[in-house]
Amino acid sequence: MMNLHDGYVVDVPYPTFVHRQAMPTWLNMVVQQQGIQAPDLKRPFRYLELGCAMGIHLHLTAAAHPQGHFVGVDFNAQQLLVAQEGIERTHISNIELIHASFSELLTQQLEPFDFIVTHGVWSWIAQEHQQAIVQLVSQLLKPNGIFYCSYMSHPGATHFTSVQKLMLEMSQHLTGDSASKATQTVHFARRLAQTQRGLFEKVPSLADDLTALAQDKPSYIAHDFLSQHWQPQHSADMIRLMAQQGLAFIAGAGVIENIDVLEFSPEVRRMLDQLPVLTLRETSKDILRNTLQRQDVYVKKAQKLNQAQRSAYYDQQLFCLTPQAPVGQSLAQDEKLGQLHDLVPLFEQVLSSLSQHAMSTQQLLKRSKLKISAQQFSEILMVMVWAGYVHPCAAQQHPQMAAKMNMWMHEQALPWRVIPECATAISLSS
């Protein structure tokens, strides 16, 4: 069997991943936190995943959002067969799979979408396929619709370019499947790193990065490093490209990267605030963070929430605990929240409050007795969302659908479970 199809690894399956930050409830939160209108999840909506692979993310997201219609597209027929088998087992009916390239999808008559997402695709495909994604988003995303795109970013990925080229070139002289080739090429790159010469002398952290990479699944390494198309992007270029299609960059989907006050000193924040345009600010932040991967959220024909709508969001959007929330435990040594020493008592209070019932930002602020605005308090809440302990509540719940999905996850020995109260999925192994 061919290892590559159009420059992309096809002989070993792409590992299954689930991305909470690409789910509708999470994306709506990200957008509304920035004061931008988002799709109404209380009504039927449409969601398109470009490059859905075996459909695990799509399947879980559909089970968590029964009011939506979910469409997954992939060029790999074998992976779609696996996805279809799963759908037939769970009988979750709000999913549609399409076997097509992105260019082929442009010729099909599809209804517009409220959400279009693509994760782990953009940086690993040819420019013609990237352009097809741009055209799809331009044609199929509704006004106020959300586009999520993850991609490798400069400068964090910059030093990997030579190593990736080495791995790709070496793989073409090896036998076996792509997973085997990935293991062998990483091993050789690590041997080079041990010399501490040249690139490895200038960038000593690269050796540690390769050691960490070697711990990943070989199939993941193959898909991530043995593609002929391996293109880190500058965020400024992506933001401009999307702006040409009428899409405004809103925020990072990871949430924590949107809270500058936690990351940068007052002096650095003043420097960033003085920059005249968004592309300069985002590029500067990427340099300061050494960003390896970005998860951009864009909105088509974005409209700002007025003051009444923003107040309604803080009053009406409820938040609840996730199963991982360490209620009643000290957070002083928590690996995610413990470093924010001054906020630990507040974090613990929020967890205690939410253990009673779901609450809004405004309700939690009132309980805290802090003399700050709802917007300021919402940033504190977002830290707890990022940590995985708090999550926005679902607009609609369907426990029966979630139960079907979770039973199938158990049968397949996969770690994810739908949490219907949160309209998300979590990993039992995390």
From TrEMBL:
Domain Methyltransferase: residue ranges? 46-166
Outline the extent of the Methyltransferase regulatory domain.
218-300
The lineage's top-level taxon is Bacteria
Pfam families tied to this protein: Methyltransf_31, MethyTransf_Reg
Which PANTHER family does this chain map to?
CYCLOPROPANE-FATTY-ACYL-PHOSPHOLIPID SYNTHASE, FATTY ACID C-METHYL TRANSFERASE
Q: What is this protein called?
A: Methyltransferase domain-containing protein
